[in-house]
Write a structure and sequence with these properties.
By secondary structure, the protein is an all-alpha fold. The protein has helices at residues 2-9, 12-19, 23-29, 33-58, 62-71, 79-82, 84-96, 101-125, 134-154, 163-177. The longest helix is centred in the N-terminal third of the chain and has 26 residues, at 33-58. The radius of gyration is 18 Å and the shape is elongated. InterPro entries: Homeodomain-like_sf, HTH_TetR, Tet_transcr_reg_TetR-rel_C_sf, TetR_C_31.
Length: 180
């Protein structure tokens, strides 16, 4: 429903009907649309973290991990992976209200920690522990990913779907060839 109509356009009645529930059943599970959106973001983050950690366990080499990310089809099990516009809309919806920001910050920290864990694991597997600050690198990478997601929404013709992963590969090659 949100994918088709956006957050503002999707009524509680339409959301409940699309899920096969009555309006009363919706309200027995959520206090309103805000709570549903936060639950959807939470589920998205949990799925993303688990999927990436599973992938990292199977692909110790960072280049293999990046290639596995590139070829993985996240759209089947994750509506926010399928719809970057909805993902950005939900983030902005939650961020707009100051009282909801702590919930969004919690999800942001979880995403950032995931990327930090990936960076730490990649550095350790490459025998380069201590060469970068993993937490700061994770923050940079997350901002880069969100930036490419936004650019893709604005100009998909010049921003390929794999822009973020291509940039990571380019940065990895540049760091590997730069003298220490």
């Amino acid at each position: 429903m949100f994918e088709e109509q956006g957050i503002g356009g999707a009524s509680i009645e339409a959301i409940a009907a699309a899920a096969g529930f009555t309006r009363g059943a919706f309200y027995s599970n959520f206090t309103g649309k805000d709570e549903l959106i936060i639950a959807m973001l939470e589920d998205h983050v949990e799925q993303t973290v688990q999927r990436n950690l599973d992938l990292l366990a199977r692909h110790k080499n960072i280049a293999d991990f990046i290639e596995a990310l590139r070829t993985m089809d996240r759209s089947l099990q994750d509506p926010l992976g399928r719809s970057p516009l909805l993902h950005m809309e939900m983030i902005l919806f939650v961020a707009r209200a100051e009282k909801r920001r702590p919930e969004l910050a919690k999800r942001l920290r979880a995403r950032r920690q995931l990327i930090t864990d990936i960076v730490e694991t990649a550095l350790k597997n490459a025998g380069r522990s201590g060469s970068l600050n993993p937490a700061w690198t994770g923050a940079i990478l997350l901002a880069l990913e969100d930036g490419f997601r936004l650019h893709r929404l604005i100009d998909p013709e010049t921003t390929p779907a794999d822009s973020f992963l291509r940039a990571i590969g380019d940065l990895q090659r540049a760091v590997r060839t730069t003298p220490a």
